[in-house]
Amino acid sequence: MSQASVAPKHVRADLQRIASWIEPESRVLDLGCGDGTLLAYLQNNKNVTGAGVELSDELVIASVRRGVQVIQQNLEEGLALFDDQQFDTVVLSQTLQSMRHTEHILREMARVARYGIVSFPNFGYWPHGWSILSGRMPVTGEMPYQWFDTPNIHLCTLKDFEDLALALGLRITHLATFNGNKEVKLLPSWRSTLAVYRFETPN
């Protein structure tokens, strides 16, 4: 890896892995792009043509300051403003679990791009089970909210997501799992707190 392509320290490990799955000079749509960190990195290091979608006023401003083109919109309203296969890759990072219409957003991702990348907290992480057995909803680094104020409404395990992808006709091509900034290779279904999937959409 050349010095120019080394990710700065503020780019999380999961975002670095997502970036590694995206081809140079491709077209990328980042849904829930946050402060634009991923798209800015891709623009600077892979010369992608990118656009982001974000609802928060503060994060939209932060994205623009990073030189990212961003559209302010609620993802629950869908992706109707984008054409079929307008992008090569569409990313939904750590947002899937907060979507009310999970199947709909995945179908829309499949419509607007050939490849999709999603990441979400792994509810199968083993301490979650202990927490539930002790009578409490789990509170961890990837899911830091109490049960009454959490935005996470659709929690799932790795197997849950894989079953849904299969039902929707999405072919999974890559999987990476993390616990904090460390990638997990051994027993990822139990030991990882975050899962990142890349899938290919139906023709």
From TrEMBL:
GO molecular function annotation: methyltransferase activity
Gene3D superfamilies recorded: Vaccinia Virus protein VP39
Top-level taxon: Bacteria
PANTHER family recorded: BLR1400 PROTEIN, METHYLTRANSFERASE
Pfam families in the cross-refs: MetW
Entry protein name: Methionine biosynthesis protein MetW
Stored InterPro entries: Methionine_synth_MetW, Methyltransf_Superfamily, SAM-dependent_MTases_sf
